[in-house]
Amino acid sequence: xxxxxxxxxxxxxxxxxxxxxxxxxxxxxxxxxxxxxxxxxxxxxxxxxxxxxxxxxxxxxxxxxxxxxxxxxxxxxxxxxxxxxxxxxxxxxxxxxxxxxxxxxxxxxxxxxxxxxxxxxxxxxxxxxxxxxxxxxxxxxxxxxxxxxxxxxxxxxxxxxxxxxxxxxxxxxxxxxxxxxxxxxxxxxxxxxxxxxxxxxxxxxxxxxxx
Length: 211
Prior knowledge:
This protein is of the alpha+beta class. It has a domain at 4-139: Gcn5-related N-acetyltransferase (GNAT) (Aminopeptidase). The chain is 25% helix and 34% strand. The protein has helices spanning 33-40, 43-46, 56-72, 119-133, 149-157; strands spanning 4-10, 13-18, 24-27, 76-81, 88-98, 103-110, 139-145, 161-172, 175-185. Strands 1-2-3-4-5-6-7-9-8 form a nine-stranded mixed beta sheet, with helices on both faces. The chain is globular.
């Protein structure tokens, strides 16, 4: 997989990664607020978010928080976008950055329209390589509920090995769930490329469409 680091640097790391004409990772921008709002309106997203993203102000606040984290060096969040249209396909980030131990926590989501196209796994692979090469991290961790096989598939395809289970770690609607823990090291081999490649999904969502 050949990727091109582009754009200016903040904290010594590139803010844009060009994977192909179909896929780019870049920092979130305020122009993405309508797309963020639309993504969090998905019932699957509402189940897992810490707080609802309902209004335009909510979406702008979410983007501002990602910017503050980046500027502070505690987390680095990317919008996953279509390379041609700049339409938002999803989100990948490495957060909880611990410089003492060179460890970070990976999270990701995709829009409903982008699911099943290999977008999340490829974006997660690219994020991992960026985190190792640009952010100089050594170990990346992620976790998912054991009743979420889709997220497990993404993690494995991105080269994250299963390391164990955290019992009843998360609670949703009064039900506690075990979490499966995955990790990838900078010294681990690159995962094999997926057979399918992401395709263009849609142009950016207009603000008017979400009001």
